[in-house]
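Quick start: read one record
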Amino acid sequence: MRITGISTHVVGTPWRNLTYVQVHTDEGLTGVGETRMLGHTDALIGYLREAEANHVAGSDPFAVEDLVRRMKYGDYGRAGEIVMSGIACVEMACWDIKGQALGVPVWQLLGGRANASDNRVKAYANGWYTVERTPEAFHAAARAVVERGYQALKLDPFGTGSFELDHAETVRSLSLVEAVRDAIGPERELLLEMHGRFSPATAIRLARELEPFQPAWLEEPVPPENLKALAKVAEKTTLPIATGERIHDRIEFRELFESQAVDIIQPDLGHTGGIGEMRKLAATAETHYVLVAPHNVGGSVLTAASLQLAGCTPNFKILEHFNDFADAEIKKVVKNAPEVVDGYFTLSEEPGLGVRLDVDAAAEFPQQQAHFDLWAEGWEKRDGKGGK
């Protein structure tokens, strides 16, 4: 079997464009991969066009390791977000082809079920708080999440906070967290996102004030570039620290593990070179007693691929899900899209990734000039208008 070429399809919304890549073969099998780029979609499409000619076309889709190595190192330049995302789309599509050809789900090819003994993977909701920043609005929105059966949800309550958060905004942010905790009760997981907003001193102060609400983690409390700053926060709080969505190479996680400053890593499968690369990273995390909770802000193909990893990874914690609350209509572009029922995904038994791209449905959502600025007023509405 040989790859004959690839085709790309961009599904657009005001705040995010989702790029789907189909890998075609001479035996009629087609695999699909996906990533979500912020502001670099055209660059990704351009890279994939060159990579198709230089590396992908003519390759054996079963030889995933060799293809990834050539795409990553064969152009000599250092692979960053765009290259690693392009690799991820092609790589997960190859796993999809391999699973279809052999008649088994990808998680079976990666070692079999290890973390879903009851065939379920816990989900947490994101993208649900597209409301006014008032306790009443956040309380009602959180109740809607609970009523859908979710057992965990995440929010960033900190507005446009950057480095510091003044007293008035601190009081307001804490009131939002208090309202959400009241809405979901003590038994459900509350995950707090900081989006790398703060200085260590501010993050430490906020962590102390957030402890009574018992968040299951504190995510990206400081910008991701300075691991000593992250370690400083980790040393001063009892809350678990999560980070990693903006690291695009498993090798770059080495210093993070060595720092002992993280409890949960959050690599994005669509930015970290794909399923095989993530499996290696998860195994390294396990040797450091670190859990894995992938960043998953894409659509249903990326979710399906992340679930394959969940099924075979002992230290897998939970999977993020946006598409019940943000752009829910785009789920129709993928057939057999994973769904959350009573707070859990069901691990698919279908061959490959278990999903198919509906190209006609995808065409109903053309690429947009999507923009998402986390430091702009109203960003939480995810309507493409905040600060634009």
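Residues 108-353 form a domain with the TIM Barrel fold (CATH 3.20.20.120).
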